[in-house]
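Spend some time on the protein that follows and explain the fold to me:
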Amino acid sequence: MTTQGERTPSSGDPSSGDHGLDHLPSGTYRRPRRSIARRAVGWVVVVGVVAAGGWIITRPTPGDFIPGLGPSSKDASKTPPVVGTPAPRTVADPEGLDVDTLFPAQRLVEAGGYKGKRSGVRQGENCTEALQDRTQDVLRETGCQGYLTVSFAGQEKPVLSSVTVLRFADQAGAAKAADALRAKPGALAFILPDATTARPPAAGAAQRGTEGRVEAVGRHVTVTSSRLPEAHTPAPSASGTGTGSATPLTVPPSPAASPEQILDEATRAVSYAAGSPFAWM
């Protein structure tokens, strides 16, 4: 009932009891418009948060091998230095001495207790470049067609390895070169992680690991040797009161492993990794 001067509330009138309800002719009504708007804003916020979280999780990080799965290696973004041009491919050797095929930078060499990562590379068609002393060319009459020298750095033990792969026209040339290299240990240069050539050991100096492992594999020869980094070479033990001191190892080897064992383990692992691709050629 209304009194004189009052008006009857109508549908949609703010002063009526049905705030924000849109009555339809049939007597039904839609949900309040403000409620729909609030829900829409809420969904937009939720979707935005989820999208932002997904971007944070899946965005590529420097060093990721698979984007979004985290860095696989702290220095994976660094490209190992490569010096020289690869030897040309031949009909008999279509793959050639391609360092990324033979020794992918992302793949570790693992065998036994050794784990090593590829670093510096030197390559070329002139095999004389791989020699320590180019005036003494032990490969002169072997028909060498190209070389690839790769440095490996131990990841858990302080050891450096250098492996050289030589390619020849036939197995006879490879066998001849292998014999010549075995007769002259240290004939090939030892390269360091920065792709520079290591200085040869002083005459008469007792340098561990200079004797290489020479293997003839089909038309290829692999020559591998390992050394302790100069800063990690164990000093003679102190005597008397023990006033002398030795340079501590950055990553000390297992107490059960001697330096000679570490070197031999590294040389064997890298030598096998270098020769295995040519085993069936």
